Every structure is written in C-alpha cells, then in structure tokens.
Amino acid sequence: MYKWILAWRYFRKRPITLLAVAAVALCVFIVVVVMTVMNGLVEEFRQKNHRYVGDCVVSSESLVGFGYYEKFQEILETQPFVAAVSPVVRQVGLLTQPQASWNIGVDIVGIDPRLHAGATGFGETLHYRKNAPELAFVPTYEADGLGCVIGIDLMPNRRLPEGGYYHAPEPFPMSIVVSSFPLNIRGGLARAGTDSVSSRTFYYSDDSHTGIVKVDGNTVYLPLDTAQTLCGMTAPCAASTKCPSLLHPAHRWMKGCRKSKHFGIPIRRHIATCRAVIYSTMSAWKAGSKTAAASSPRWKKSRRCCCCCF
C-alpha cells in the first residue's frame, strides 16, 4: 500500500510525468492501430490472391508451356487430396478494336470456365455470369460469336466518382481484336515476316473484378482451346503453362503441394529423355549423318513429343 501512495504523490507533484504517460499511451495506440490496419490489408491481399490462383499451382517458367498436361491433370484428379484442377494458358499479346489505330499490351489467359471456377474463385469475380460461370464466354447479343472476359479496369468509362464500377443491365455490344505472337519450342517466333502475328475477333461477354489492380487492368480471358490456337500451343501436341488446383479442406496446403509436385516427376523425366534424344539427333544431323539419325527408332518414338521439351 505504501508503494502505491508514494508513486501517486510523485505523479501528482511532478506534472512532467503526465507528458511522459501521454507519450507512451499515444505510441501504444499508434502501434495497435497500425498493426490492425496492416494485418487487415495483408489478410485481404492474401485472400484476393488465393481466390485468383487457387491452393496449389504447377507451372512452367517458359511461355511455350509444357505438353501432356492432360495426363498430369488426370493423375491429379484421381488423388484424394485434390478437389479440382484447371489447365491454364498464359501468354502476352495486344488488344485493340476493329478499325482502331490504338492497341495496348495485355495478358492472354486461356481457361475452361467450368474447371477454372471449380479450382479458383473465378466465378465470384464475374458480374453477369456469377451464377453460371460455364457460360462466361457466351455473349448474350451474338449467339454465334466467341466471347471473352475482360478485366474490369480495361473497360472504358466504368469507374464511378465514389470508387465503384458502373454495370449496365446487360453486356453492351462490343467487339475486340486480340493478337498474339506464337512461339516455337525454343521460345522464338514460330512465324517469320508479317505473318508472325495471330489475331482473332472476340465479343465482350463479361468482366472480371478480382480486386488485384495488375490483374484487372491487364488481363483478357479466352476459351482454352482458342487461346492455345491463338498462341501456337496446339502442334504437335496441346500445351499448358500452368495448372491451378483446389485441395480438399482436410489436407494441409504444403503437404498437398508437395504431393502434386511429386506426380510431375515422371512427366519431367520423360521430357528430359525426349530432350536428350532430340538434341542428340540434331547433333547427328549437323555431323552429316542425317539419314542414320532419321532411321533411328528412338527418334521415331520421340519426335511426336518434342513440344513438351520446354
């Protein structure tokens, strides 16, 4: 009791201590507020990215992607810890409108809307087709046209003064031209001269609002098979650049990711074998034994899968 009385007397007789107490209280208050705001921002950013990419992503570092992704997808879908898998094609390109003199650089993302909505939160980002994401590429005003989904920030005059976005009751008619530069298996241009660009016209069917500024302002979603053709990822076999997957809640993310990576080892070994055979055959051609190399049974077996080497 004596200690508390003595401390209270010193506190009352020296006003400078009030300033020290106020300073300490203000610092603690600032720290609590900053930590609360930052934790909220970090958690919101984490949730937006998780909704965009899913639980686990198996991807290629190359823009030409990797072949035989269908087999890898089938293997993952049979595993008890995997709930959904979605192959994705990602490439860079240009966006413009017919008869327009302008163009902007965009990220071309080819997806199967039904599979992608199951593996990620793609369906939640749509506006008109939120309840039916499998119809995301079906324009309501052009029955025979091929639709596309555009990032919300790519749409002109959509931002309201209060910060929201304006949406008409139905998607307004608008056609856009998406161009890409198909690459060969070495990463160079697959075509030479003026024919190096592959273009196609699409119709605006919906927009996507992920909440990630870089994605909403640079991404155009196309049907998977159309994007593969546009980006030159169909011959000699179809390719994909990444495969996002959704894991069952009962399995931990890190454990599921390690298992998913493990199932890609046999495919990577097969790719390495094909690469070694192709490189050895090319060396044999340069050495002047083209006839012997072409008649090799190993070359006949591997030349069908050369696109998976990168």
Q: Could you characterize what this model shows?
A:
The protein has 310 residues and is α+β, with helices and mostly antiparallel strands. 40% of the residues lie in helices and 20% in strands. It contains eleven helices and eleven strands. The chain has helices at residues 2-13, 16-53, 69-77, 113-119, 122-125, 213-216, 224-230, 253-263, 265-286, 290-294, 297-302, and strands at residues 56-59, 66-67, 82-85, 88-96, 104-111, 147-151, 175-180, 198-208, 219-223, 239-240, 242-247. The protein has a six-stranded mixed β-barrel with strand order 4-5-9-6-8-7. A hairpin with a 7-residue loop joins strand 4 (88-96) and strand 5.
